[in-house]
Amino acid sequence: MNGFLSSATGILLVATTAFSLIALYALPGLLARCAFRPYRVWRGQQIGSLMLGGFVHANLLHLAVNMWCLWMFGPPLERQIGTPAFALLYGLALVGSHLPTLFKERGNPEYASVGASGAISAVVFAFIVYYPQAELFLLFIPIPIQAWIFGFLYLAYSYYAGRDRSRRINHDAHFWGAVIGLVFVAVADPGAWARLL
């Protein structure tokens, strides 16, 4: 357990959980201050929300799902690619997965989103490149499914959920995070794609 807590995955999981719980229950104003708001970012305000938005979550379920995915996919991926590469992937995806939304919603003063979903999606899809046949047990599916099937279902859900723009979850970031995860592995370790194909 000590090894996990000193890993990049462990540090991110603990920091995100703590920060999110504080924002949800102790300092609710923190949630609004950290939320990613493209309209304000374009006007030079809340630029840090491109990253800080990934450390707060809309509700307890949103936090639990993201942290469960990080706990499940993060450690094996971090061991595979190393801690510096894992931290770089997470940081690039945390910011990069928001960039399309930054342009798409730049004129919408009402739009705001929170959550680490883009970075988590990058971790999940980088994991899939290395372990496509890994069997996963999910709470809502009584049989194990392979990682690549989980990835497909994850993106299908993100597309469907992304049509509801009333919630504070940026489902577009799921897709772009997945792209970042796949491209990151292609650049950092082209042999992984060669073995996959």
UniProtKB/TrEMBL annotation:
GO terms for molecular function: peptidase activity. Gene3D superfamilies: Rhomboid-like. It is found in: Membrane. SUPFAM superfamilies: Rhomboid-like. It comes from Microbulbifer halophilus. GO terms for biological process: proteolysis. Keywords: Hydrolase, Membrane, Protease, Transmembrane, Transmembrane helix. Pfam families: Rhomboid (PF01694). This is Rhomboid family intramembrane serine protease. InterPro entries: Peptidase_S54_rhomboid_dom (IPR022764), Rhomboid-like_sf (IPR035952), Rhomboid_protease_S54 (IPR050925). Residues 51-186 form the Peptidase S54 rhomboid domain. It is a multi-pass membrane protein. Its EC number is 3.4.21.-. The chain crosses the membrane at residues 6-27, 47-74, 80-99, 111-131, 137-161, 173-193. The keyword Membrane applies.
